[in-house]
Design brief:
Helices cover about 35% and strands about 25% of the residues. By secondary structure, it is an alpha+beta fold. The mean pLDDT is about 90.
Length: about 300
């Protein structure tokens, strides 16, 4: 479940340990020592973990705790392994890391899929309060506090020249990640987010549900259109034809076009809102009973993964 975790341990949480004097001896690749507006700093590594030290705090950032503990970040950490990983970091740095503040949490899982990630992207539509950003190897949804990512994990490993575990060789693997990057106390409605909270059972269950729920908030676009439902209604018939056009053009492109019309002064803000609402409503029309086989597959596998986690 867990991949990247950022920690911040302050001087008053370290039981009087002199951070700049004592901690650097436990690091490797200590290659950046200098002064900033905040005073002296030292940067180094604990295996793959990036460590930054000042007299007031120790920061672990931009690194996979999963890779640190399990040897690669293809997998993810469950509740028990997360606790053991934090204990290992504490032992190596001689610091009480279970009390560190958490400033970023990445929740992720691999989904073995029938097809390559590129086959699913056209049918993952908009999600409220996110910007939808297609990528070469996937799809990102971003806002100021968290990101959703879908990408081909095997493709990523090949690009980085990393070994692919036997379980995933010759398979399509969709990686779905939910990243909490800012204002964690606000997002989780708790007074503080400490490292020990990561392996608290109640928090872990809620986080798993959040990972699943954020996926299901994404509007899914129908794609099985080999036959339309028979109808004598002109309205239903026109709406079904509109859906075909929407599927052909792509919902994000149509919404972007409407936005361009509004910004160019061709239509009013109210007209743009009405058009967007119509487009989103059309995208929910079901043209056959089977629905979208690709999305049905992802829906089921996300639900199953959440139950397993």
């Amino acid at each position: 479940m867990y991949d990247n975790i950022d920690f911040m341990l302050y001087q008053d949480q370290t039981k009087g340990i002199g951070l700049l004097d004592e901690i650097p001896q436990y690091l490797t690749n200590v290659s950046n020592i200098g002064e900033s507006q905040y005073g002296k700093y030292i940067n180094g590594h604990l295996d793959n973990l990036k460590i930054s030290i000042t007299k007031n705090r120790v920061k672990i950032h931009g690194s996979s705790i999963c890779k640190y503990y399990l040897g690669d970040n293809f997998k993810t950490l469950g509740k028990g392994d997360t606790r053991r990983a934090i204990e290992k970091i504490s032992d190596k740095l001689h610091l009480p890391m279970e009390g560190a503040n958490i400033t970023r949490i990445d929740v992720a899982q691999n989904i073995i899929s029938a097809y390559d990630i590129t086959q699913y992207i056209p049918y993952l539509g908009e999600s409220q309060r996110y910007n939808r950003l297609p990528q070469n190897n996937g799809l990102y949804y971003q806002n100021g506090k968290r990101n959703l990512l879908f990408y081909g994990k095997v493709h990523e490993q090949k690009i980085k020249g990393k070994e692919i575990p036997d379980l995933y060789k010759q398979r399509n693997v969709v990686r779905y990640e939910l990243r909490f990057i800012k204002r964690l106390t606000n997002q989780f409605n708790v007074p503080e987010v400490k490292a020990k909270l990561l392996y608290d059972e109640s928090f872990y269950i809620k986080l798993t549900e959040r990972w699943k729920d954020e996926y299901f908030k994404i509007q899914k676009i129908n794609n099985r259109i080999s036959s339309m439902k028979p109808t004598g209604s002109k309205k239903d018939f026109v709406n079904n034809l509109a859906l075909l056009a929407l599927l052909d053009c792509g919902q994000p492109f149509v919404l972007s076009t409407i936005k361009g019309w509004q910004q160019g002064g061709y239509i009013s803000k109210k007209q743009a809102y009405d058009l967007r609402s119509t487009v989103k409503q059309i995208g929910t029309i079901k043209l056959d009973e089977k629905g979208n086989e690709l999305i049905n597959e992802l829906d089921k596998k996300v639900r199953d993964a959440a139950k397993f986690l």
